[in-house]
TrEMBL record:
MF (Gene Ontology): 2 iron, 2 sulfur cluster binding; metal ion binding
Pfam families: zf-CDGSH
Descriptive protein name: Iron-binding zinc finger CDGSH type domain-containing protein
Alphabetized UniProt keyword annotations: 2Fe-2S, Iron, Iron-sulfur, Metal-binding
The keyword Iron belongs to this UniProt entry's keyword annotation: yes
SMART domains given in the database record: ZnF_CDGSH
Annotated Iron-binding zinc finger CDGSH type domain residues: 27-71
GO CC terms in record: cytoplasm
Keyword Iron: yes
């Protein structure tokens, strides 16, 4: 069986960076299709897509993935 040659040069690959414990950073613009079929679009240069599901702006990362460090500097 013959595989047809691509019509032109291969498109440039989009860079996606995985942040350990954090979001996935994708070169924008980005359109995310959610499980219910709705679409969210961001035209930012780099888009942070939430992977922890804790974001109040899901599918975008709002830094809720960061651990909250409680600092109690009061003396007892
Ligand atoms: S990855 Fe940042 S809020 Fe989910």
């Amino acid at each position: 069986m013959h595989t047809p040659e691509p019509a032109g040069p291969a498109p440039a690959a989009r860079t996606v960076r995985v942040v350990p414990g954090g979001p996935v950073l994708i070169e924008g613009p980005v359109e995310v299709v959610l499980p219910d079929g709705t679409r969210a679009r961001s035209d930012r240069f780099v888009v942070a897509v939430c992977t922890c599901r804790r974001s109040r702006r899901y599918p975008w990362c709002d830094t809720s993935h960061r651990r909250r460090v409680r600092r109690d500097d009061r003396e007892v």
